[in-house]
Amino acid sequence: MGEQTRHGTVHARTIQDVFPRCIRVCLPAPFPLQTVNAYVFFGNDGVDIVDTGMGDDATRRTWEAVRAQCGFEWSDVRSIVLTHHHPDHAGCAGWLQQRTGAPVRAHHDAQLQLTTMWGDDAETVCTDWVRRFLAHGWPAERSADMQAHMRSFVDVVRPLPMRWQLMHAGQTCMLGNDAYVVIDTPGHARGHIALWDERRGVLFCGDHVLADITPNVSVSPGGEADPLQSYVDALMHVRTFHVLCAHPGHRGAITQFSDRVDAIVAHHRARLARLEAMIDAPMDAYACSTQLFTKPLTLHQWRFAMGEVIAHLDHLVGQGRIRRVEEGHRMTYQRRV
């Protein structure tokens, strides 16, 4: 059951209290995760939103219903903060900006990724992305499907925000009545940030750390050369914080933060060891992916799988544990001799 408003029903599980004057909004997402978390902070001088959900009709209806139930006006919103540029976190930012007039605040790299990948150059970016997958063994007969899948995100990210305020590590960001420090946490996405309140030991961590699934770490257009190294370095940095509770971009809060970070690092070390052992003959990333992921995957899941396997293989190359061989338009990985 939920509360009926003129914009629709807000189910009880959609809005949850985080602490006084801060709520978590569980927005719909058309992926296996099903929902993405946004956070709304109520301050004396206005309302701040962290992450926005997809730019689709279901998410927009949910935001309208949440606003009506919580009793604030769109004009009360003073900032829209993005932890990173992925469509499920940033897709509704432009629409919310049109409703509120508020600036969208993000790391410079996140703003660049969002506007490059889903702006005027989106078609070229999608084509280049598929071409890269083909070089790594993605079946040519499925290239058109992958291209269409990637292009489909354009419609759930536009309109793009027009007014930005760019942030950097160490900067203070007001959320409600409290000041949070911006922390660089790249790896899952270039320009990913977390927001840290040392006084209370509270971290809003986006997709950097999740409670019961491992965040995807993939190569991507315009991304980092070694996203896995960036990710692990950022994990070890936030592990030094005295985090009492972390609020992630999906699912529930994390109270055993150091243990969760350790488990994620161990997962990636195990995957690296498995991939290294797998390379007993020249293999491409697609062949490696089919051995790692034996259950049927959707195109969305295949994109994550391929991107993550390439990221791990390239990390092994950077460590000198295997080598990458380019032959024409084909990329394979081999044991070092």
Q: What secondary-structure arrangement, pairings included, does this model have?
A:
Layout: E1 2-5, E2 8-11, E3 15-19, E4 22-28, E5 35-43, E6 46-50, H1 57-70, E7 77-81, H2 87-90, H3 93-100, E8 104-107, H4 108-118, H5 122-135, H6 143-151, E9 164-167, E10 172-175, E11 178-184, E12 193-197, E13 202-206, H7 227-239, E14 245-248, H8 257-278, H9 285-292, H10 299-318, E15 322-327, E16 330-335
Parallel strand pairs: 6-7, 7-8, 8-9, 13-14
Antiparallel strand pairs: 1-2, 3-4, 4-5, 5-6, 10-11, 11-12, 12-13, 15-16
> Count of helices?
10
Strand residue content: 15-25%
CATH superfamily: Ribonuclease Z/Hydroxyacylglutathione hydrolase-like
Major sheet: order of its strands? 3-4-5-6-7-8-9
- Uncertain segments are 1-9
How far apart, in Å, are the first and last alpha carbons? 63 Å
- Report the C-alpha radius of gyration, rounded: 20 Å
* Average pLDDT, all residues: 94
Structural class by secondary-structure content: alpha/beta
Whole-number count of domains = 1
> What is the CATH architecture annotation?
4-Layer Sandwich
Largest sheet: 7 strands, mixed
Oligomeric state of the chains present here:
single chain
CATH fold description: Metallo-beta-lactamase, Chain A
Helix content: 25-40%
